[in-house]
Every structure is written in structure tokens, then in C-alpha cells.
């Protein structure tokens, strides 16, 4: 195995030298794997994360900072990848729970009545919005279009789309809070 200084490693990775990259992988992947396993408690997931870190290292080779030791960089990148994956899974779980809650049939007649009343208030608040603002909001939330798609269809700037969405959300929030 090649014994390289930090400067040689950084220069080799920046120049996309496969031998240097392979040597770095062989030297640091085991310790990165151990870090990942501690965070995610799953060997396959840990392997995937180590691969992701090295893939990102290869993709961003020209941006590699030569001031930090490569082992510190790789350890931090591994921890960050693990934390990002954990946060993503938590968001996914929260979303799934929310969707299950929304899909649960309402058995309580009071809850059903409250839901219908809230929907009516929402539609009234929606009708109070300026026409263009309402159209942008409905295209975004109702039709699932991206701001870029909305801007293209309505022939307006993307900043105008964002402004309309911000205005709509703010007004709807105020109207719905005032009604309750």
C-alpha cells in the first residue's frame, strides 16, 4: 500500500489519480465504516454511506481543502452523511405517520363536523386571495406544479411565483387563525 503525505493525497485526488484514490480508500474505508455502523446500526447501510462519501470525494475532488488532514475530512464527511441519512429517515417516518393519520377514517361525528367547517373556512379564505395569487397557489398545491413550471405556464418570473406563494400562505394562515 502506498504511504503518502496529506499533500500528496490531496494533489492525487484533485488530479483524479486512481492509484491514490484506491490507496486512500483501502486505508480509510474501514475506519469510516466503523463510524457509520455506530450511527446507523446497519452494516449494509454503513457500506452504502462509505461509498457515498467516496463518490462525493471523487465528484468534488477539485474542491478538496488541502489544509485539513484527509482522515479528518473523511471522518467528518462520514458523520455528516450518517446524520443526513438519519434526518431523512426521520422526516420520512413523520410524513408516513401524518399520512396514516390523515387517511384514518373519522369516526367521531364532532371531528368530522370540525373538518368540514375547517375546509369551508379554507375555501372562503382561498376565495379572498387576489386572482393571480390564488391561481399560482392552486397550481402549486392543487396541481403539484413546481415554481418553474408555474412561471413558464403563466409567463411570469419565478420570483413572482415565490412572492404569490408567500402572500397566499401568509393570508391563508391569518384568515384560518382568526376564524378559529
CATH topology of the largest domain: Rna Polymerase Sigma Factor, Chain: A
Total helical segments:
8
Distance between the amino and carboxyl termini: 69 Å
Q: How many strand segments?
A: 0
Strand content: under 5%
How many domains make up the coordinates? 2
Overall 3D shape:
elongated
Question: What is the CATH superfamily label of the largest domain?
Answer: RNA polymerase sigma factor, region 2, helix turn helix motif
Structural class, please? mainly alpha
Biggest pleated-sheet summary = none
Give the helix proportion (percent range): over 70%
SSE order: HHHHHHHH
State the name of the first-level CATH class of the largest domain: Mainly Alpha
Features:
180 residues; mainly alpha; Arc Repressor Mutant, subunit A; 8 helices; RNA_pol_sigma70_r2; RNA_pol_sigma_r2; sigma factor; transcription; DNA binding
